[in-house]
Amino acid sequence: MNVGIDLIHFSTSDYFLGLDTFAQEKNIDVDKFYIGIGQEKMSIAPPDEDVVSLAAKAAAPILAQIDKSDISAILFATESGVDQSKSAGVFLHGLLGLSPRCRVVEFKHACYSGAAALQMATALVHMNPKEKVLVIAADIAKYDVDTSGEATQGCGAVAMLVTESPRILAIEPGSGYHTEDVMDFWRPNHRKTALVDGKYSTKVYLNSLKHSWAHFTEQTGRSFSDINHFCYHIPFTKMAEKAHHTLTRVAKVKLTHEQFLAQTQPGQVYNRIIGNSYSASLFVGFCSLLDNLKEDLQGRRVSFFSYGSGCVAEFFTGLMQPGYEKVLMTHSHQTQIAQRQPLSYAEYLAFYHQTDEAVENIEFSQANKGPYRLAGIQDHKRYYQAV
Ligand code: HMG
Questions:
Q1: Residue with CA nearest ligand 1 atom 47
Q2: How many domains does the chain have?
Q3: Among 103, 201, 303, 336, which residue has the fewest nearby CB atoms (within 10 Å)?
Q4: What is the pLDDT of residues 223-234, one digit of tens each?
């Protein structure tokens, strides 16, 4: 039985900060961003956008195509949780009007949790093929102002419907994984922004890739040449390029420059202009590959490398299904990106500082254009609105 991604759709916010604007403000050569880290823009969430509203925006077009009462579980992956106790997925469940006959849980391990949720959803469906599981990976990447991480912010959510006989990608059994207790990036409970040892984090990412790859090859007997397309966790696109260089070196493969670009570029188009979306970023990259590679991918094998700081990593693969192109939501992805509004640095800072969720009562003025928004907090309770 094949199990995997039946439908996939992502969302991002209605605003972006251009790294040209950012570079000018900080008096830095813009090529440090365009070339050095391979980023052009960062999606910025206004105060009335959080992971629940982003997730609802990502999931709604999927639910519109199925009987939504069939959703048997929501696995919500995020490190930007809105409550220490109640899962973001239950807010989403209410907002989207799903059946009470559904289990909901939140997954966390930095950027890795999206891949974890996808693997667990796949296992659930293998156990009972009647299950239809909604996997959400949603995050708002936020670092302190004037730190090296500030240029690598962004936000987004990916919704994936995991079923038997999937129409897009069948997840293959066997994967390679690696866990190590390290402090490369973390966010203690009292902080809204992440702390990071930036250079160290890039080294741990690459080291985890080597370990995950070694385990993957042992587990599956597959080699580099068995894989047609490579998706990586993308905190910034240059990181994915470093990852692919590392993999070719470890696998002792020589690629021409053109082959290297063909294997990496289509999967980076969206990430370059959205920025880091933590748990969602690997799957935004997969959407980018699907929407931007103008080739028939049917029968091709795609690999996924998920890295979550701290750290947990996994390397796994899936096979593209016949007719997958008929169910892609390319138009929606491209329209959302095209309709974003640019922010000046001062406007970005106003959004950045305005979100004050520490207060028990707040009504947010409307900046999020919908379809769902965080309307306010009353007596410490969040309430959402369909716009
Ligand atoms: P930095 O100090 O801002 O930048 O840190 P830099 O001085 O290292 O420059 C970056 C690159 O730009 C360098 O290239 C420079 O040479 C080049 P590299 O040596 O890396 O190949 N450069 C230029 N190129 C062209 N023209 C120029 C120019 N100037 C410089 N004029 C850093 C960069 C990524 C460390 C920083 O942005 C950061 O700390 N980001 C946050 C951490 C991060 O994203 N880490 C990635 C790995 S960990 C991960 O992916 C997990 C994560 O997503 C979280 C999670 O799991 O939840 C972060």
A1: 202
A2: 1
A3: 103
A4: 999 999 999 999
